[in-house]
Amino acid sequence: MAYLKYTVNNHQGVYDIRVFSVQESYVPNNRKNGNRASVALKEKKQFLSFMGKTKQITHELKMRYGMNCDFAGNPFLAECVQKISNVFDNLFGRSSLPRSVTCEPLFYGILGTFYHQNKSISFNSNSSCFDNMEKLKEESESAYHFLLPNEFSSLHPACTFVHEFSHSAHYDNLAKHWGDACSIMEELRHTQVPTVIGRLITRFKLGNYALDQDGGMNEFMAERMTQDICKGLTYNSWLYVNNRDNVKYSDIFERKWDCRYSSPQSYLDYYTQQVWNGDIREAENAAGKIERYLAELDAERVPKAVSTPVSQIHAAGIPILDKIANGVSSFFENLTEKLDNRNRLTMK
Ligand SMILES: [Zn+2]
Fold it and tell me: Which of 49, 136, 321, 337 sits at 20 to 30 Å (Cα–Cα) from 247?
């Protein structure tokens, strides 16, 4: 298994990028069995049942939420989208849901994308993690632990669904505030999350994806929501059981902290509130306040003991340490080169 990170660029702009595992193409389970005549009828019945179930969920989502869905006959994906749609309807209202959800071949390695131009979500039909719950759980946990640790903000199997639907809910809130959500999202995408917020992100164990350079503030928001919502979701049924106020970002700073800056979490919440409401200028002002606050915290800390510089270890003539250091650095150089090459290959 290998995990890579991709930049996706096409005629509609740069979209969501998710870390992935190398997987075989999605093939409906009914087609994976052998071709013995004795199982043909059973397979056909099973296939019709899958199609029936997928069709039924597609119909229900259309009737209940007005969503246009095409799950390419994948009943498990349809079930996941139905469950997460119910969660977002309960937490943020019907208008937070995407206009459409599709399952289609995306670039190798991408799990899902949100297209803010038409408020729609696509999941990758080439990804086997949408085959069943076991594979989905395996994906979220292994992606978190292997090669790119701390990339996601949650280990919950629903994390990819929550992440993409969070973009849609964010879009909806921007539309309510500004009317033209599309151009605000575009601006947020091009506004980088400052380094000082990165320190808070690390402190509160948000995934590194929150600092994704191609997604800017949009990815920060989606990862913050992924962490908060997944913390409240039951593992198998995906029912939200935590306090709903945890995800009321429009006035989270006013409500939770009574407009007082008193802790790193209060600063992070203040920043989150500005990004959620699309107030880029205030979000950038917040970064200045946070920088001063963290500098004060740093000054209060007792300075750590100075460690032995690497040059002195070399001078002490310990060849084995040199070998280890060289090995580790060449491993990462090779890896970076491979990832860069891969990024170049997939740019369009
Ligand atoms: Zn995203």
Answer: 136
- 112 Cα: distance to centroid of ligand 1 (angstroms): 8
Give the helix, strand, coil percentages of the chain, each rounded to 5.
60, 10, 30
**For residue 163, how far is its CA from the centre of ligand 1 (angstroms)?**
6
CA distance linking residue 152 with residue 341, whole number of Å: 23
| Residue 147 alpha carbon to ligand 1 centre in Å | 20
Separation of CA 113 and ligand 1 centre (Å): 7
In terms of Cβ atoms closer than 10 Å to its own Cβ (0-12, 13-18, 19+), residue 63 is exposed
Tally of domains in the chain = 2
Same domain as 135, residue 66: yes
- Judgement on whether residues 119 and 92 belong to the same structural domain of the protein: yes
pLDDT 10s digits, 110-129:
889 999 999 999 999 999 89
Residues 161 and 225 in one domain: yes
Q: How confident is the model at residue 58 (pLDDT cuts 50, 70, 90)?
A: very high
Q: Are residues 322 and 293 in the same domain?
A: no
Question: Ligand 1: distance of its center to the CA of 216 in Å?
Answer: 10
> Considering the domain boundaries, does residue 227 fall inside one?
yes
- Find the 219 Cα to ligand 1 centroid distance in Å: 5
CA of 301 to the centre of ligand 1 (A): 36
Say how many Å lie between the CA of residue 137 and the centre of ligand 1: 19
Residue range(s) defining the domain that contains residue 330: 310-337
